[in-house]
Specification:
heterodimer, A: 224 residues, alpha+beta, Arc Repressor Mutant, subunit A, 8 helices, 33% helix, B: Rossmann fold, Ubiquitin-like (UB roll), four-stranded parallel beta sheet, binds flavin mononucleotide, binds iron/sulfur cluster, binds FE2/S2 (inorganic) cluster
Chain lengths: 224, 432
């Protein structure tokens, strides 16, 4: 896979400031520059019983996931209980419960889905039906860093295909595969809702805006 | 300033505090006039609030442009049942990124809007359905909800009004179709996100069959301003039928992409060439999509229209959610249309045959044309498929997919024909 630099439109005209994105303003709400631009990208925040009003779970993927970790025990059980109190019935907690199972183990194995089904008193087949409907549930193990490159229209107009190619080339991956060192999985994403700042790339839970092919090596370098 | 660029011709109401981190905090928001409208609302009758919003002419910013006050008035007044307010923060229409900025910079505006809306429709719960990919806005909102709770704006018996209120964030899991309101309700209930047939409408039978109102983030953010300043004040901007200001998201081939807030009815050409800086040096604008990927495409010479619901409709397109996608003369229209149709094929929920089959076959045929293997008859097939998709399904995703196909064939037929002819001559050369 090669990258054709000529395909890339300059992101902004010469001299214009680059859109700073979120990293432009930090210091509020416990997000430091290091967390945003540095090595803290991936949620390593402690499991704190969940946020008071976030029904789902943050962060979404963990670096140190363990496919055999117990599901919904200890602090996770508390969190599930908390989630359940926020909904009129158990079924409504299905999406957040699946998010949490994925957070704990890194992906949704058939066993995890069955366990979610048991906890929420739902038929296992039903839970699988829901889990397979949504794109954020990963049914297979992924690399430590899931790199999602938006190639929808606004990003595409500004060279997203080349950025995707560059990620594939620099990680030595095929689309959707786990790289041989287990670090990266690169996939194509639909619009990520930040279209004015192309190309938008989501790496685990963080958005990177204004990514050009030239930025790819340094981004990968940051993801140790 | 709007974000990330600003322009003196903007009218900043909602986007005034974009880029101002102080506005994110409760204290900062209160200092900027926040939560005044809430106190006022709690001291008024519910009907007064609905009438004020009706009088302001505020229209839903989620795409359909339905008058918000009218929508609220559909909610039963004394049903004795639990009512729900769902805030639609699923923003996933390609080209749209305004709700994200609203939530990132002014989370308290949304909370206040939810509170007022919920009070007006007698809901004691609001769920904010935020798309799963928006971790950072979700975190900012979560923090703001915590602060608002600590500050006494959420909880039981607010300011002695007897009104209890709770806001709960619900993160989606990645599906465009969740933005459609009935599908959002299903997704919220823990089902697959498949749209429901209407009627019954959500105000009669929404989540769990209970009266429900669904409003977009931008719609709810505008409500406190209207209550604070009155309907007349809001009507100083915009047109008779499309009053007020709106945030437009500009992406694609312009010098300064970003969010800009202007009054509805603003001249579209001036907007693109002046406020957004126009095309890149040496380029010309070939096509513009004015309202997100789901609306018909305009040619670059069709821009002398107002940016309001009526003028856009008269020009054969839609304002949608105000997502302006600009394409210059280097754009391969067929490729971009194919990319959009790929998106709809990926996101179709699969309930309706015209949509499930039409989106997939549309994408395949477009791919064939793009690769140089198309024929002129393919264009007729595409039009026929689109005709079968529009207006024949449970939700309008199918219509949304047909819009770029039919409008691009109508306006850029030459682009399609050029690819087809080139492919044909290559084929002749191969067989010769
Ligand atoms: C396929 C489809 C996707 C939609 N996506 C969104 C969305 O992401 N955000 C949104 O606010 N409205 C979206 N809508 C519109 C909603 O159905 C609904 O009209 C809107 O949320 C109502 O709020 P409003 O009256 O404040 O505009 C979508 C509609 C359709 C048919
Ligand atoms: S039109 Fe498409 S997305 Fe909408 S309900 Fe039918 S199949 Fe699902
Ligand atoms: S098109 Fe890439 S983020 Fe919207």
């Amino acid at each position: 896979m090669s990258t054709d630099e000529t395909k890339v439109r300059p992101l902004h005209p010469e001299g214009a400031p680059r859109n700073p994105g979120f990293a432009g303003i930090t210091g509020e709400f416990d997000l430091t520059e290091a967390q945003i631009r540095g090595t803290e990208y991936v949620g390593r925040r402690p499991v704190d019983g969940g946020h008071a009003s976030v029904a789902g779970t943050l962060p979404y993927q963990i670096a140190d996931r363990n496919p055999d970790a117990p599901l919904f025990e200890g602090p996770y059980a508390e969190r599930l209980e908390k989630i359940l109190t926020r909904y009129p019935d158990r079924q409504a907690a299905l999406l957040p419960a699946l998010h949490m199972a994925q957070e704990i183990r890194g992906y949704l194995s058939p066993q995890s889905m069955d366990e979610v089904a048991a906890r929420l008193e739902l038929p296992p087949a039903y839970v699988r039906g829901v889990a397979t409907f949504y794109t954020m549930y990963n049914l297979q193990p992924l690399g430590k860093y899931l790199i999602q490159v938006c190639t929808n229209i606004s990003c595409n107009l500004c060279g997203a295909d080349a950025v995707l190619d560059a990620f594939l080339e620099h990680t030595g991956n095929d689309m959707g595969e786990v790289s041989s060192d287990g670090r990266f999985t690169v996939i194509e994403a639909e619009c990520l809702g930040a279209c004015g700042f192309p190309t938008v790339v989501q790496i685990n839970e963080r958005f990177f805006e204004n990514v050009g092919t030239q930025d790819v090596p340094s981004i990968l370098e940051m993801l140790k | 300033m709007a974000y990330p660029y600003k322009h003196p011709s903007e009218t900043l109401v909602l986007a005034k505090y974009f880029g101002d981190p102080e506005a994110r905090t409760l204290a900062g928001w209160e200092a900027r006039g926040g939560y005044r409208a809430l106190r006022k609302a709690l001291g008024s009758q519910r009907k007064e609030i609905i009438d004020e919003v009706k009088a302001s002419g505020l229209r839903g910013r989620g795409g359909a442009g339905f008058p918000t006050g009218v929508k609220w008035s559909f909610m039963p007044m004394a049903s004795g049942k639990q009512h729900y307010l769902l805030c639609n923060a699923d923003e996933s229409e390609p080209g749209t990124f305004k709700d994200r900025e609203l939530m990132r910079w002014t989370p308290h505006a949304l909370i206040e809007g939810c509170l007022i809306g919920a009070y007006a429709i007698q809901a004691s719960h609001a769920y904010i359905y935020i798309r799963g990919e928006f971790f950072e806005p979700a975190q900012i909102l979560a923090r703001a909800i915590e602060e608002a709770t600590a500050g006494g704006y959420l909880g039981k018996d607010l300011f002695g009004s007897g009104f209890d209120f709770e806001i709960i964030l619900h993160r989606g899991s990645g599906a465009y179709i969740c933005g459609e309101e009935t599908s959002l309700m299903n997704s919220f209930e823990g089902l697959r996100a498949t749209p429901r047939l209407k009627p019954p409408f959500p105000a009669q039978a929404g989540v769990y069959g209970l009266p429900t109102t669904i409003n977009n983030v931008e719609t709810l953010c505008a409500v406190p301003h209207i209550l604070n300043n009155g309907a007349e004040w809001y009507r100083q901007w915009g047109t008779e039928k499309s009053p007020g200001t709106k945030i437009f998201c500009v992406s694609g081939h312009v010098q300064k992409p970003g969010n800009y807030e202007v009054p509805l009815g603003f001249n579209f050409r001036e907007f693109i060439y002046d406020i957004c800086g126009g095309p890149l040096p040496g380029r010309t604008i070939k096509a513009v999509i004015p309202g997100g990927s789901s609306v018909p495409i305009l040619r670059g010479d069709e821009l002398d229209i107002g940016m309001d619901y009526e003028a856009m409709a008269a020009a054969g397109t839609m304002l949608g959610c105000g997502s302006v996608i600009v394409m210059d003369d280097t754009t391969d229209i067929v490729k971009q249309v194919r990319r959009m149709v790929d998106f709809y094929a990926h996101e179709s929920c699969g309930q309706c045959t015209p949509c499930r089959e039409g989106t997939a076959w549309g994408a395949k045929i477009l791919r064939r044309i793009e690769g140089g293997w198309g024929t002129e008859a393919d264009l007729e097939t595409l039009l026929e498929i689109s005709d079968n998709m529009a207006g024949k399904t449970i939700c309008v995703l199918s219509d949304a997919c047909a819009a770029p196909i039919t409008s691009s064939i109508e306006k850029f037929r030459e682009d399609y024909l050029a690819l087809i002819r080139r492919g044909e001559s290559l084929a002749r050369a191969r067989t010769a």
